Amino acid sequence: MADLIEAFPEYAPSTVMLIATIPGLFMIFPSLFYGKLSTKFTSRSLLFAGLIFFMIGGIMPFFLDNLFLIILFRGLLGLGVGITLPLSIDIITRFFEDRERDFLIGFGTSTIACVGAIFFQLGGGMLADNFGWQYGFLVYLFPIWILAITFLYLPEPAKKVAVHASLKETLFTAPKTVYGFTIGQVFFSMLVFGYVTNISILIQSEGLGSATEAGLAISLFTFGTLIIGMFFSRIRALMPIQNVPLAILLTGGGILGCYLSNGLTMIFVASFIGGIGLGLALPGVFARISELSNEKKGISFVGFIVAAQGLGGLLSPLFYQTILNITGFEGGRTTLLFASLGLTGLAIVWSIILIMSNSKSHAKDPHAPAL
Question: Is the pLDDT of residue 157 over 70?
């Protein structure tokens, strides 16, 4: 990100950061309509279309030097993510239950996804360092092999029976827990993006390293997510109620460690710790929401969370820029402080709401499941 800000000095940093956050806006649209898409198109067709959008939107900035065209194609990438992410959760939910489902959601949203993220961040940083910022976008050629496997080998799951749950029914008849988790996910994504967009600024502006080291820090963040994802189902079984708030608190602690660090080693360690928190929070939210979806009525609330992720990422630069304007501080290290404080506050509020909701639920029905 620091290289991109330097490449477009005529634009405000918050505008350049739209390259990272605009995919979040475009994620929202296919996510909200995913239930309808899944009844009209096969899973294989949706995956194929999502990967095509992802690759075209990712690669095209390599050929461009106009910031707004780059942002536009990044939006196309967001459309691809908005299709493939709820699709992956939906397929897991359709075929697996209980601990198996939790394991695969953790493995899918954390472990497998983060292998790609590590490759994109580290590979992109190395290409940008050695050849120029535009070459960093060439890493989006990577999904070509996934496309080939999809086309040649992926069996088509049984097509969903067409149901007629309207968008109005899906949006306005969801359990309160769905709305609560969705709002919480908006804030969580908004705060975490402060790390994603500012860790490279901290490392490069303070002379701690180059784009390669910045990419390595984010890769370690995602590596922490990768490792813990394999143990998600066990951890959730031990902490069925408070797993998400504790994960958010751990994420904030890792980002606070980055703020307090004076060298790369501590940044790398703190990034890894923050990633562990993220690797518990995301599948924790997805697992709870998938439990509340109603496949028989054709209602899936997973798209709500994907849309919330996108909206949070989109709002992040505006949120932090507003705080920086009010306080008079500059971005980079200070943004990480605000991110960690915000995540700590979010964890406390989320925990209190869960405790209160769970107490009310058990007062009405002692055998009610934990929220």
Answer: no
Q: Which of 187-201, 282-296, 341-355 has the lowest mean pLDDT?
A: 282-296
**Domain extent at residue 203:** 11-154+165-356
CATH number at residue 81: 1.20.1250.20
Q: Give the gyration radius of the chain's Cα atoms.
A: 20
Using CA atoms, how far apart are residues 274 and 57, in angstroms rounded to an integer? Answer: 28
Tell me which of 182-186, 228-232, 334-338, 351-355 is least confident. Answer: 228-232
Q: What one-character-per-residue DSSP string does 293-318 give? A: -BGGGTB--HHHHHHHHHHHHHHHHH
Alpha carbons 32 and 4: distance in angstroms, whole number: 31
% of the chain surpassing 70 pLDDT: 77
Instruction: Answer whether residue 316 is part of any domain.
Output: yes
CA atoms within 13 A on the CB side of 152: 6
314, 27 contact by CB (below 8 A): no
Longest dimension (CA), the chain: 63
Measured distance CA(209)–CA(223) in Å, rounded? 20
Structure tokens at 68: 């707004």
Q: Single out the residue of 210, 193, 176, 169 nearest to residue 299, CA to CA.
A: 169
Residue 369 counted as domain residue: no
Which residues, listed in sequence order, are joined to residue 294 by a DSSP beta bridge? 299
Q: What sign results for the dihedral spanned by CA atoms 29, 218, 345, 239?
A: positive
Number of domains present in the structure of the chain: 1
- Report the pLDDT averaged over residues 77-102: 77
pLDDT at 185: 93
Task: Let me know if residue 45 belongs to a domain.
Answer: yes
Q: In angstroms, how far is CA 83 from the centroid of its own chain?
A: 14
208 SS3 class = coil
pLDDT tens readout for residues 113-142: 544 555 555 566 667 777 777 777 877 777
Region of residue 156 (phi > 0: left; psi between -120 and 50: alpha; otherwise: beta): beta
